[in-house]
Amino acid sequence: MSGTAALLTDQLPLRRNRRIRLRDRTLLFRYLVVVNLILGGWYLHWRLTQSIGQAALWLALPLLAAEIYMYFGGVLFLVGLWRPIQRQVRSLNQLTPPLAPDHYPTVDVFITCCNEPAAIVEQTTLAALAMDYPVNQLRVYILDDGNAADIRALSERLCLLDLRSPPLQAAAAALDAQRNQLTARLRQVEALHQDVAAVEQVLSQHSLRVSSQPELLPQILAWFDQLRPAALPDQVWLACQTALGEGFDNALHHAHKDLPAETPIELEAVILNYGVLLRIWDCGHPFDLEGYLQTHGEPVDDWAERGRGLTILRQVVDDLSYFRSDDGRNCLLLIKRYEPQPEGLSPDQSERWQRLGQLQSLHQLLRLSQPSQPSATAILAAQRQSLQAQIDQKTDQLADLARCRYIARDKPKGRPHHAKAGNINHALFSGETQGDFVLTLDADHIPKPQFMQRVLPYFFDFNLDRGQYEGNQIAFVQTPQAFYNLPQGDPFGHDAHLFYGPIQQGKDGMNSAFYTGTNAVLRREALVSMGLQHFALDFAKDEQRLAEFDLIGGLSSISITEDMNTAMRLHSVGWRSVYHSEILAEGLAPDDLSSTLKQKLRWAQGTIQVMLRDNPLLKPGLSFWQRLQYFQTMYSYFVGFFIAIFLASPIIFFFTGLIPVDNFGPQFALHFVPVYVINRLTFVAASWGIPLRELWRNEQYAIALFPLYIQAVWSVFTNQPIKFQVTPKQRQSGVYLGLVRVQLIFFGLTLAGMIWGLVQLILGNWPDPWVYIINSAWAGYHLALLWVIIRAAWWRPKQPKTPA
Amino acid sequence: MTIKVKTLEPTGMMDGAAAHDLKNQALDALHQGADGVLLNLSAITFMNSSGIGALVSTLKSVREKGKQLYICGLSDQVKMIFELTKMDRVFTLYADVADFEAKVLTA
What we know:
The complex is a heterodimer of chains A (804) and B (107). Chain A is an alpha/beta fold and 804 residues long. Among the domains of chain A are: 150-191 and 374-400; 205-298 and 306-369, 2-Layer Sandwich (Heat Shock Protein 90). Chain B is an alpha/beta fold. In chain B, the strands form two sheets. In chain B, strands 1-3-5-6 form a four-stranded parallel beta sheet. Chain A binds chain B through residues 428-429, 431, 434, 524-525, 528-529, 531-533, 535-537, 539-540, 546-547, 549-550, 553-554, and chain B through 15-17, 20, 23, 48-50, 52-54, 56-57, 59-60, 63-64, 84-87, 89-90. Chain B: Belongs to the anti-sigma-factor antagonist family.
């Protein structure tokens, strides 16, 4: 642990960056889970067989159903935490072996916004541009679904600001310098053009093309003779002539034995100052000269008519080889070395031949170094082309240096827009974005400088065979959602250390980390290939959907929680996921009740939509544990109905005296208390490290939101039109008692019931005070739970001490 | 049937950027009066899913103009990526130019 801490020297102290590590207590936790499940089963068994309130079945059976639902909810929840993992935090710039910044992947940051104030978008964009990442590999796109003039103006302003910043100026200067260098090289290469063409013209006499006719030999020797330099000794020249003749003969009588007489033979004589190279090209079949020489080592019989050619060749030249070239011809290569004898020559004469030999040698070097090109002028042309392409590329890069960009889409009336998923997909397919990875950020989520450094290492594995990093099967990395505007006491219960802690770590352990729409990096390849597969299925059902392709071809758009469904689809086609438990961005939480409820309703409705349209239990490709994780989330949203039953039970008792449980006395205590205690202990083990106040807040909201959960299930099952509502980022002011009507009624009735019961007890109408006491304790707990949302209805932030 | 089909023959790697260039070429061709565009992909050495994504986007734009997009000459790698992303169901594919001419032009 200390090693990791030392590595992360760049980590700023984050106020809320608590590290919750369920992994440290996995064994204890699992032990408690097992005890918990056994005791819970035992309790349910007792309830089912011995304590159903026979007197009031209409009340007893729903309560029992609620208890069974809760039990199975608990089983799913706890099993989901069975294998929590804690990822080791690494940084891209500190990998071993290191990854050079030139090889960093390209990243697009998508800031999704829809009618947020420009100031909020500005803060996020500036932070995204300031992330610690090479400037040429990062682009920031403001995806403005509101198509607002002020956001467009903002992005233009930030783009210019960014271009003027020192890192961008340095990048521009570097690119410009490279381009200048290339341009200078191109000019020089162009200047060579005429001279190189002239050289090739001069040297062109050194090759000759003839047909396969023996009577051409004199003509060939005449051509060869005029190439003879004055300083070449007679003996050597004789040897060369002989070699050429034998080579020609070989082409005629062996290679072209069965070929027509017009089959061409090409002769090349490269005459250098210290050697002669002869190349004779034929069009015959491949022939293994090496192998032939090894098996036919001995000289041929003196009386044989043919077959001496090779023996002669081997004697007159220093090197001999026969090879097949890429163009399908054979080449007989003969090399003869010699010492020049310039005696008796005039300096002029000798110098002329020397120059020619030198020219030949350089020309040959050029040709041999680029054997795929047919001539020096072709090499020159290719060089010019390649330089021009490189210059164009640098120019493009310079023009492309603007990192802050704006994308908005047309939203024609009467056609589906697919909300946030449509916004992101449009950007993916618009052709304007090309990054290998996409960081999605909600408009208010301000990323920290180290975001990409921390998250990108997960996407690569080091391939030991090839000695390089390669992409793996990780489709996305999710990081926590945290908020910088939470008021003291978190009246709306936004802090989510339980979810962005043990729960996500547990999901990660089963390769089913949830994508939650923001603060996550996705692999474009994964998103697009998964999206295409699903699009193909939609298209097969209805070809008209092609018109929507750019809005539905990537992220899932069948529900208003596009994020969860996208992750599920990625998992179902075999991609993997990671949860990284370090806070790397902080955003704004809604700080009024109306916005909070809208957000929670959307999550609930979206989740249930996914259950109906893309059910994880039926979806092919998911593992058992992934199904369990996704189903657990969906299952949990049905809790509203059962909470209503729990809340109603003590109220009904107070006013009617009916008890839904037989033996509401010592027997009940004997069964209920151990289950309750062990349940709490398990929960404490799971959530150790999270402040009790926050856990209590979570519990309060889990219960107090029950009307919203009922509404969500109801609206989806009855097919009511559901709109994606963007959570407002600005405080909506007002008193929202109307929004908590149902909770107020339950609260009032519970309170009235307690008083009514007390009166009955004092009047002596009830013989057993224990039943009253148990019910009152239960009711008191309910009051404490419901109070949170009633209080939140008129909560306002404290006025700032200094007026703005 | 006489229809004017413009044939495009992209070469090399086809990623998102290359496919978008191709899209522009196709749309230019339609703008200049072609009734359809044939993409001969036989010289494509490698294609990724972003490349395919851009092809679907091209198909969408072409159909919106009431015209047609044909694809032929898939190499093994390209065929594999078409099948993996199930795009063989979305596009009508032909073995090569001859196959296309036999089935479409002379039909």
